[in-house]
Amino acid sequence: MLLGLLLPDPCDKLCPEDFKEKARNLLPAVQGQVGAKDEDLRRALLQFIGDFANWDLSTNRKYLEISRGLVKAAHPEETPLVVDPFAGGGSIPLEALRLGCETFASDLNPVACLILKVMLEDIPRHGPELAEELRWVGAKIKQEAEKELAEFYPADSDGAKPIAYLWARTVRCETPGCGAEIPLVRSFWLSRKQGRKYALRYNLKRSIEKPPYLIFEIFEPKDDSEVPMGTISNARALCVACKSVLSPERVRYQLSNQKGGAECFFDNSGKRLNGSTPLVVITTSGEKAGKKYRVPRDEDIQAFARIQDRIEKKEAVLMGKGIISPIPNEPISEIRPSPNARGLTAVTRYGIKRFGDLFTQRQKLSLLTFVDKITSIDLSESKFPNVLKELLAMAFGKLIMHHNTQCRWNPHGESAPGAFGRQALPMIWDFIELIPLGESMGSFYSTVELISETSEKIGTWQKTIGTVEQSDAVKHPLSDSSASLWFTDPPYYDAIPYADLSDFFYVWLKRILPNHKITKGDNNDSGNPLTPKIPECVWNQAHIVNGKVKSQKFFEETVTKAFIEGRRILKNDGIASIVFAHKSTEGWEALLNGIINASFVILASWPITTEAKGRLNAQDAAALSASIHLVCRPRPEDAPVGDWGDVLQELPKRVGDWMERLQSEGIRGADLVFACIGPALEIYSKFSKVVDAQEREIPLGGDPEDQEPHKRGFLAYVWEAVGRAALEQVLGTAEAKARNGASGSLEEDARLTALFLWTLQSTNGEKNAPSPQPSPTRGEGEMSLEGEIEVEAEDEEAEAPKGKTRGFSLVFDVARRFAQPLGIHLAEWEGRIIETSKGVVRLLSVSERAGQLFGKAGTQAFSEHVEEHPKGPVQLKLFPVEEERTLPEIKGRSKRHKKSGAHVSDDSLKTQHDATTLDRVHAAMLLQADGRTNALRALLKAEQEKSPDFLRLANALSALYPKNSEEKRLIDAMLLAVPK
Question: Where do the segments described as Disordered lie (predicted)?
Fold first, then answer.
């Protein structure tokens, strides 16, 4: 993306001839001779950009030299300055340095600034030599820490060494006469690898003297049915002794009294009393590859007896160095952020009130030991002692990600991926405790080695040094017109509570780097012991600004100020690119308002698949499969006023042309929807303002349900244009023009279903089919935009779903924005083809509609009727069992939407008893599923004789249903049965 922004287009009449000549001389080194035409050079440059984007070529010397040569040829007089005011982890500025640009990276967050400083300043300045010293220092710290900590991780008599311990929090059964201890175990699987299947099972022991208790053993199951079910689901705990269920409220109460329940308590003799219970010790031996599992022994338990005394001694040592509270006692915010942002607050409901509560006693001792060694290491002989301290602090930050009580064991990979699988810290019932010693996964030295390798690689090819500063994006330190390129990935509205998440690391950095400038405190709030919150550009209800909680308005105002600053520091002939991947329409509207109010013209929007498909938040409602890159130029100060009539007339063609272009590139679904917004906004944002015939200004956003353009807003018309273009593609021209049942068009439910499935398509490939059961890898429970819906339960305590929740889902506001301008009334289809809950609209699966279409008797009664009356008319009446039916009201989008209160009227319900074309297609699919061949043939024949609509819709749905889904299989099989 940076190369595309930095290089001129050879087909542009203003492209310098000198650039073309130098490009033709550079490119043959990696792709052969370039053709004589400007179009040939354009294709060659695009091919080079595409090739260089390949990860395997990222540090290839030839490609580096050519890319830097091209940038220099495009900017011969002055090296371009690339500015990123929301630099975060530093991807954009690092790429800019790689291309030979000057770079200025800044962020408000101190943790981000430490990463930026090390990566953009220290590593390029000192090169691979820094990596060598880090390895030496890291090995020394490892050796000294092992001497102190080895006794707390005892090896087995056969020499096998522990690498991890699996623990479970516990609660007591409150049923009278029981009182059994319930280990909260989500899954008893230990390894699910092929040829290596291990699991836990238990034997229930009863005694007169004490409550029932469990004895665990490890075994090798032959099939899944042998493995016991977990004892905790959605925060409900099952007592295996009496089969009673402890409610989420009581589970929270008991764990709150234990400060989360991760700590294990012992008597003076070393016997466990209560708290968490050890389940499994995972060991490894140098003689035999692979992990081994065993139940805990007495020596494992006795290792805890001396921990508390050692912690107190270690705390005294650190307090002597000036660290007032060695174990972080800073409070975790208990106020839940805005609906989409989970943060760290889930754990506070279980008594984990301070950051120190996130660690077991043994983890605290280990972490304090490493803090002691890092802060006391003698670096007097090092060439760069301050930089080494920063690198060691970063290694420690990686360490604590794997050494806390919120880490899971993954039986599929026999691994522990760390606490932050997504941007939240969910409550974990059974957790893994890794060993920080040695060189295995999650150890301190493994993090040192990882950072050393990174330092070595970056330092080898990167010699240009960037500039890093901790600053607020709305008060940028650079002067006017100083940047050639303003390229940034700003905060995602309410999706991620960045500052709250970084506090997890910041509280430890304060103890390792007490005199560093990043730990100097919050300039905006002297009483804040954590990262800055007041000026942070997010919508987060946990933060108070001037006595009020942060709102959507705060985000829009703040991001607008940041974009105005970007416009100020950008040269008049400069270019800007803004990345966004938030799928809420409010988030998009706030961002786009900020861009336009900052006097930018949006020229294009490119979806780029920058995100890993397997990341957890890819399954969340806030994530796109691609990041949308908006390309902007400064709007001239003398930009004219636009005429609304002209803008509205140009909009459909602009959207249609861009959709066709993007689809030819493999862009699909939601990525396509949001990518179309950029070109549509060019015709709007190039004007200083747009007014109608009465001189009323047409705003960007507004009420999409209003009919007056000056109240409705431009974006509503963009959504309508995209929806009509989509319907025209999948159902035909008549459907794009259809509104309120226009003649010749399919009914509303068919158009809604087609739009739903069209939006859920994925870029560069078919979307996966929904799973019949909840995914085992998505335990936090997220609102999935594709496939089945899982309950929202980042703390694993939400209401359990009733039965299987199959189907496909969209954010309510996205569905509403499409439906309303196309004359589709969501309220009238609630409970019939859609189901709305918690701000998400779910398209019911075909199997869920069987009762509606055939009644309680199912397809059998319909088939028997057809067979008894083979020459009679084949009719399908919806809801064949005549009984009163009340459809549920539409629920709004969490707390940000009022309930519409829309119910289906009696008159409307009567008309809906008549089966639509979609109903008949679904009925045919169900007949196919049940093997009702005769009835299916009769129905298909009757539909063919009636009109072509049935087959037109069926073929469209066949193209839209995800490959490998049950719906796709059924509809294709049904189509094969259509008489030729």
Answer: 763-785, 889-910
Paired tokens of 69:
């040569």
CA distance to 151, 181, 257, 276, 367, per residue, from 361 (Å): 14, 21, 17, 12, 10
Joined together, the tokens standing for residue 924 give 């045919």
| Count of domains forming the chain | 3
* Mean pLDDT computed over 245-261: 94
**In a domain? residue 374:** no
Residues 381-431 have pLDDT tens digits of 899 999 999 999 999 999 999 999 999 999 998 998 888 877 888 899 999
Diameter of the chain measured on Cα atoms? 99
Query: Is residue 113 domain-resident?
Result: no
For residue 772, pLDDT over 60 is answered with: no
- Nearest-angstrom CA–CA distance, 563 and 597: 8
Half-sphere exposure (Cβ direction) of 256: Cα atoms closer than 13 Å: 10
Tokens at 4, concatenated:
């595309």
Question: For 851, phi and psi rounded to 5 degrees?
Answer: -65, -40
- The pLDDT value recorded for residue 885 is 38
Q: Are residues 69 and 164 in the same domain?
A: no
Q: Which of 40, 74, 108 is the last residue of a domain?
A: 74
* Residues 800 and 920 reside in one and the same domain: yes
Q: What is the mean pLDDT of residues 634-647?
A: 95
Q: Which of 283, 302, 321 is the last residue of a domain?
A: 302
Confirm if 893 and 839 have CB atoms less than 8 A apart: yes
Give DSSP secondary structure letters for 16-65. Answer: -HHHHHHHHHHTHHHH-PPPSSHHHHHHHHHHHHHHHTSGGGTT-HHHHH
Long-range contacts at 692-698 (CB < 8 A, ≥ 24 apart): 692/644, 692/645, 693/644, 693/645, 698/644, 698/647
- The stretch 321-333 carries a mean pLDDT of 89
Phi, psi of 75 (to 5 degrees): -130, 70
Name the nearest CA neighbour of 817 among 715, 710, 699. Answer: 715
The C-alpha atoms of residue 819 and residue 758 are separated, in whole angstroms, by 13
- Alpha-carbon span 889 to 827, nearest angstrom: 7
* Sequence letter at residue 483: A
| Domain shared by 70 and 159, yes or no | no
Q: What is the mean pLDDT of the chain?
A: 85
Q: For residues 622 and 423, is the Cβ–Cβ distance under 8 A? A: no
- Termini Cα distance of the chain: 51
756 near 750, Cβ under 8 Å?
no
Whether pLDDT at 183 is above 80: yes
DSSP of 504-546: HHHHHHHHHSTTSGGGS--TT-TT--SS--TT-SS--TT-EET
On whether residue 890 sits in a domain, the answer given is yes
Please state, in angstroms and rounded to a whole number, the distance separating the CA atoms of residues 254 and 275: 10
What does pTM read for this prediction? 0.84
Query: Which range marks the domain in which residue 33 is found?
Result: 1-74
The phi, psi pair for 399, rounded to 5°, reads -65, -45
